[in-house]
Amino acid sequence: MAEVRLEHVYKVYKRGQVEAVQDLNLTIKDGEFLGPSGCGKTSTLRMIVGLEEITRGKIYIGNRVVNHLEPKERNVALAFETYALYPPLTIRQNISFCLRARSLPADEIDRRVTNVARILGISDILDRKPGEIGGGQKQRVSLARALVRDPDILLLDEPLSHLDASQRARMRVELKRLHAELRRTTVLVTHDQLEAVAMAERIAVMNLGVLQQVGTFDEIFYHPVNEFVAGFVGEPPMNMLPCTPRSEAGDMFLEADDGSFRIKLAPELQTAVLRKSPKKVKLGIRPIHLEAKSSAGMDGRLELPGTVFTYEPLGEEGQLAVRIGENIVLVVTPPHVRFSENETVWLQARTERIHLFDAETGLTISN
Amino acid sequence: MAKLVLDSLTKTFGKVTAVDGLSVEVEDGEFVVLLGPSGAGKTTTLKLIAGVEHPDSGLIYIGDKLVNAVEPQKRNIAMAYETYALYPHLTVRDNLAFPLRAPGRNLSKAQIEARVNEIAHLLNIHMLLDRQPDQLSGGQRQRVSLGRALVRNPDILLLDEPISHLDAKLRHRMRAEFKALKSSLKTTTVYVTHDYLEALSLADRVVTLDHGKLQQIGSPDDVFSNPVNVFVATLLGHPKINLVKCRVTSQDGQMRFVSADGHIQLNVPDRIRQKVEQANTSEVIVGIRPFHLTVLDHQPEHGSVINAMVYVYERLGSTGVLTAAAGTSNLDVLTSLEAQFDIDTPIRLAVQTEHMLAFHPVTEKNILLD
């Protein structure tokens, strides 16, 4: 186990034309499960493992700079999307390949393979060939091959992307459990925000090669630094309503750009808006932080009137789409509360669940 | 508009029976969703209706007419695979008019114009007629492509996974858009999906299929709350319904369901007890939906409580999912997003036993429905 540290790391492809990673500073703590998401993530992973040269900057594993170490000297294991299994070998031989290369005793190899196969639920296919198993199974074999080496650092590149939804949910649980037991420093790359928030202790959100925010679920989810991060995490995604701040008689109001509402901002938000004085803002509220009421009232809460566009009962929850001016706002509702189309509703949210973004820069104003 | 009747349809491809004795009646103007995992026979069923595949046996009626021998283009069916496929260089108006200008239709310019305007008003896209597809939002594009399918006034509209290919982020919105659009449709529609949320949201009735065989037809509420068997119970809901094999025991006149390791013990409410007695079985598969389990923070007065350990806790987009280890069973529990749990800490789960389902251990049929 070890810490991974990236200092001012750049990756530039095509003679300077494509900056896949720009000035990335990131520390992955010993034993931590980190999930980078967004663009530039695979390049980052490949630099850590040693498959790509680092254009600029330094990468440390533990206290060693590894920039010039060969991949095999780094004790890093990578499991990636394209499984790269050896077709003529059985699954058992595929998993044990690197152990045999290291001349470990046969019973030790056997013990490790059996154990990892049990954890990943592939014990019954150990004697088959890669061509005889399905995509989901291949993905698990690829994982087994990385885990069996007992690496300092485990890098997972979209490890669940080829599984169907229910397999993915199961593997997510097993991977998270596995990490809790092994405490192996792990970096998981995914485009799927759900995977990142479900599994990682910290999430590094990247966009176009630039790190946007690193943080725990709470930090990313409740205090996103910008509109990109806010929209990336959470499902259904955060509602965004274009507004203009107006100051009047010492109070600050938000006016919807389509004229559909005008609300007085809570004092703490007024201060934030005054400090940054943006021309235009986006009012962001997550669908799970809105409550739909059939009558107005409830002091101290933000309140937006609208009409029900659609209501969908979805079993364990409902989804309400509400028309507010030109926008459709989504609301997650509890099961058994029903709404009908064209009904008037008031959407309420607690002040601390409201996000304001500068419409020009996308940066958060409200944090 | 017309009624659609499928009578004992069977279609095999080599050794695989894709559709197996399927009988469904779709009422005039009804919106039916075919729901099943891949390989369930959903798309094959659509192709049989459209006439691009022929059944080995069975009859297909549109209206009162037997259409088995009718060519696809003469069945007056519109089929859209993905509702996104618009001609990018044509305006919305021309995209809509395209099917009407097909050779052999012989419609006058005025007739085409009138029909395009009519469908555009119906779908609320009349203000977009002069735009190009790339100037439309996703929802508008969906409306236009649906408009193009409907402009010929088909008797039956067939839709194959029209929104499943979309990014998860967009899907919620597009499903809502589709639902809004649906209420303006009066066309008999068969819609295929593997996503249970689409089925619950959109369908007048849901048709669930497994390996080409009909499992259950019912309202969304019905298939979710009263699934006929383990397959249908598992098909709808996320996380999936918890299934625990239990012995049926009795103590002081109180029936209980007890898991093999004795770790889960559930008091059986009267309504369920009667059905279990009637079914005369000593074992059941108990089904408990994750949102019918609650993590207790205090000692309850009464009711069924399961002692468990936190196996894994995940916070997802709008809820938390707790996987709890209760003896040898893993139970999924839906929690609020604000909840926090540490791995390997003990917890107590309250079970809303009145919402339990009980399935026969061999046939896997829901014994509460007998």
Would you mind describing this structure in some detail?
Chain A starts with a strand and ends in a 9-residue tail after the last strand. In chain A, the strands form four sheets. Chain A has a six-stranded mixed sheet with strand order 6-7-8-3-9-10, with helices on both faces. In chain A, α2 runs parallel beside α4 (135-147). The longest helix of chain A is centred in the middle third of the chain and has 18 residues, at 165-182. Chain A is built from nine helices and 20 strands. By secondary structure, chain A is of the alpha+beta class. With 370 residues, chain B is α+β, with helices and mostly antiparallel strands. Chain B has nine helices and 20 strands. Chain B has helices at residues 42-50, 92-97, 109-122, 138-150, 168-182, 196-202, 220-225, 230-235, 270-279; strands at residues 4-13, 16-26, 31-35, 57-62, 65-66, 77-80, 156-160, 188-193, 205-210, 213-218, 242-251, 254-259, 265-267, 283-288, 293-295, 305-315, 320-326, 329-335, 346-351, 357-359. The longest helix of chain B is centred in the middle third of the chain and has 15 residues, at 168-182. Chain B starts with a strand and ends in an 11-residue tail after the last strand. Chain A binds chain B through residues 166, 169, 172-173, 176-177, 180, 192-194, 197-199, 217, 221, 231, 233-237, 286-288, 309-310, 312-317, 319, 321, 328, 330, 332, 335, 341, and chain B through 168-169, 172-173, 175-177, 179-180, 183, 196-197, 200-201, 220-221, 224, 236-240, 289-291, 311-312, 314-319, 321, 323, 334, 337, 343-344.
Write a short abstract of this structure:
With 367 residues, chain A is an alpha+beta fold.
Global structural class of chain A: alpha+beta
Order of strands in the sheet with most strands of chain A:
6-7-8-3-9-10
Query: Would you tell me the structural class of the helices and strands of chain B?
Result: alpha+beta
Q: What is the general shape of chain A?
A: elongated
Examine the coordinates and then state which fold CATH places here, giving the name of the CATH topology of the largest domain in chain A: Rossmann fold
Level-2 CATH architecture of the largest domain in chain B: 3-Layer(aba) Sandwich
Number of separate structural domains of chain B: 2
Would you identify the regions of chain A where 5 or more consecutive residues have pLDDT less than 50?
none
Oligomer class: heterodimer
User: Ranges of chain B with pLDDT <50 over ≥5 residues?
Assistant: none
CATH class label of the largest domain in chain A: Alpha Beta
Order of helices and strands of chain B: EEEHEEEHHHEHEHEEHHEEEHEEEEEEE
Report how far apart the termini of chain B are. 36 Å
The tally of structural domains of chain A comes to 2
How are the strands ordered across the major sheet of chain B? 6-7-8-3-9-10
The count of β-strands of chain B is 20
Largest sheet of chain A: 6 strands, mixed
